[in-house]
Fold:
Amino acid sequence: MPPTSAGLLLYRIRANNLEVLLVHPGGPFFKNKDEGAWSIPKGEVATDEDPLACAKREFQEELGAGPPDGPAVPLKPIKQKGGKVVQAWAIAGDCDTANFVSNTFEIEWPPRSGRRAEFPEIDRAEFFAVDVAKTKINPAQAAFIDELVEILHSR
Structure:
């Protein structure tokens, strides 16, 4: 079974425009990558873990604050290029993108140096208008934004 991640697509309406929250992965591998590198806040679902509970936990870990209360609307799962399946829920709300506090990870850096370095799991969080978000997000995850737009237009 392919690895599965779960995440939240936080959205808000500002000046009648839909905006979605995306996060940029921290660490040296993504330092100079922008378009196609951003993601929804997400993480791997542990064995026997409820995927929505995982999505909320990952939001907390990556942004340092829990997700807003309110209904979480399930979105259709997607499969990323590497085979990972991502389950997501859309939730309306806001968060402070200027003062987030991400958890960290440690890797050998530079490679084969024998030294370990610590990096934030995410180094940026930002709300984007839909058209911009679709150029920033991992291409497979753009389907989440499209589905959210459809859901909101049908209300």
